[in-house]
Design brief:
- The structure is a single chain.
- By secondary structure, the chain is of the alpha/beta class.
- It is about 25% helix and about 15% strand.
- It is built from 11 helices and 18 strands.
- The chain has helices spanning about 25-40, 55-65, 120-125, 135-150, 175-190, 230-235, 285-295, 370-375, 380-390, 435-455, 515-535, and strands at about 20-25, 45, 85, 150-155, 170, 195, 240-245, 250-255, 260-265, 270-280, 320-325, 340-345, 355-360, 395-400, 410-420, 425-430, 460, 500.
- The strands form 4 sheets. Strands 1, 2, 7, 8, 9, 10 and 18 form a 7-stranded mixed sheet that branches. Strands 6-12-13-14-11-17 form a 6-stranded antiparallel sheet.
- The longest helix has 21 residues, at about 515-535.
- The radius of gyration is 23 Å and the shape is globular.
- Bound molecules: flavin-adenine dinucleotide (FAD) and iron/sulfur cluster.
- The site of iron/sulfur cluster has 14 residues, from loops.
Length: about 550
Amino acid sequence: MSSAESDTPTDRTPSGRVDVCVIGSGPAGSLVAHRLAAAGYEVVVLEAGPRFDESERTEQLDAHLRPGEGNPWDVGGERDAYTDAGERGYPLNAARVKGVGGSTLHWQGMVMRLHERDFEMDSRYGVGTDWPLSYTDLQPYYAEAESALGVAGADDNPYAPPREEPHPMSAFPPSHSDSIFAEACESLGLDMHSVPNARNSEAYDDASACVGYGTCRPVCPSGAKYTAERTVAKAEAAGARVIDRAPVQRLEHDSAGETVERAVYATPDGETHAQTARRFVVACGGVETPRLLLLSRSEQYPDGLANSSGLVGRYFMDHLFAGAGGTYDRPTEQNHVGFNTSECHQFYDEADPVVGMKLEFLNYAGPSPVLGALNADTWGDELLGDLQGAYGTHVAMGALVEQLPRSENRIELDPSTTDDHGNPVPEIHWSLDDRTRAGLRRANEIQTAVLTELGVSPEWTVGPEDTGPAYHHMGTTRMGTDPASSVVRPDLRTHDLRNCWIVGSSPFPTGGAMNPTLTIAALSLLAADRLEESLAQA
Ligand SMILES: Cc1cc2nc3c(=O)[nH]c(=O)nc-3n(C[C@H](O)[C@H](O)[C@H](O)COP(=O)(O)OP(=O)(O)OC[C@H]3O[C@@H](n4cnc5c(N)ncnc54)[C@H](O)[C@@H]3O)c2cc1C
Ligand code: SF4
């Protein structure tokens, strides 16, 4: 039985009224909880999913590698039910994990800062919207976030925004296949540079250096890849109380409708409890955060909490994947490294089409010999021949392409389908626009040019027709200064309720094309500072 299923007696009854109740223990919630607990405030974290035992990571690795062993993070089922009503399917349960540590249990760990242009899309290009914050406002928090997540990186990216100090650890060296790509990129005038990774290139934060298991996604057995469990542990050491398997069912407000009074949560024994607090922080991810607000409707707020703008759930965005790959005539050593070591941000700020784009040089193209062997139907010499034929000469490039905010892309409640507690599930409406399609085509053009320069004919491409999301759900409680057109203020507090903050990617007004979690972490640290000021006042 996995620790996720075991039910050792755990006290899940609420604490008395605490200073801060944080809902969700991913990077966003755990960073706020740690910061405030360390400042001496009484903090309770309510987490819907289980606490996974870190000593069982090798069994979880087995569960990933061996056919039929199930998902290492218990994703899916009635608890995680959702409906997909959009023009384009959205695989929500591949895009999140519910558990202590949140989706970082399963993530890849690439962590870049947004560029200055991402905060100024309307002023610069007349598209999307501006953020109510600038890159400079967030810059000190980015540095703190890099230290909290343990980022290995270098200052070799000529397109990166300005930074104030080196990354906490030095970057990983480029992989063998990066060196193959480097020749083609040089002839084409493309700049390759390192990828900042939230994984240890040396021992850091009581965790070992990366030892190259190559299974970073979905599970890193060595602990070298950052998961928010690290921050949860620090929060607990600083005095925070973390209650797992405690999904919050709704938030209830005071009679004036000005403050949240309690978070009502369920426990595995069938009980329902309420945690009261001076401040509430909703950190449930880009889909469950708007869902919880919508589920918390009341007589006074029939459209849901913090929703006087009517925008809760709207402007849902993700990054789109574009890719191309083929077979090279020499060994490429793919899958020896489980993460990317080089990228190209040269086209990110390009204005034609106006969508951010970053190019990736994949280190996991083609089948891995281990997965090939475990899933094969053949044996002995035949199996060896099959593996030798399938492995060794693949190369591929990927790209993330920006999707600008559109009001019709949204999360709603689907009252016709309910979860294991009888609550309407989230209904996802997601579609692609022509500008994003043009960005995907542009990415494919560059990828094809690089492969052709290498002498590789692309054997597959992923473009506008068959693209999919990068699992970065953003934008459903957007940040702004005007309560009529945003849900949270620039300090991440909701416009409507004066003791309720929202952290995560849902406040992003636009999403750029950089993986979002470093920005999530920076915003969470900013919110923690503002929360601390507000707690000190009253
Ligand atoms: C396969 C994959 C690869 C990824 N790779 C990258 C990457 O390389 N770089 C990057 O930047 N990002 C990546 N991401 C995205 C990254 O994981 C998320 O951006 C990040 O985890 C979001 O942090 P969060 O704290 O806002 O939300 P989450 O990490 O999703 O945490 C939210 C938590 O809230 C809990 N919760 C939800 N509802 C409730 C409720 N009602 N009551 C109590 N608790 C609740 C959930 O159980 C969950 O634990 C990847 C994601 C996936 C799935
Ligand atoms: S390669 Fe990935 S899975 Fe292996 S130790 Fe490094 S970070 Fe962890």
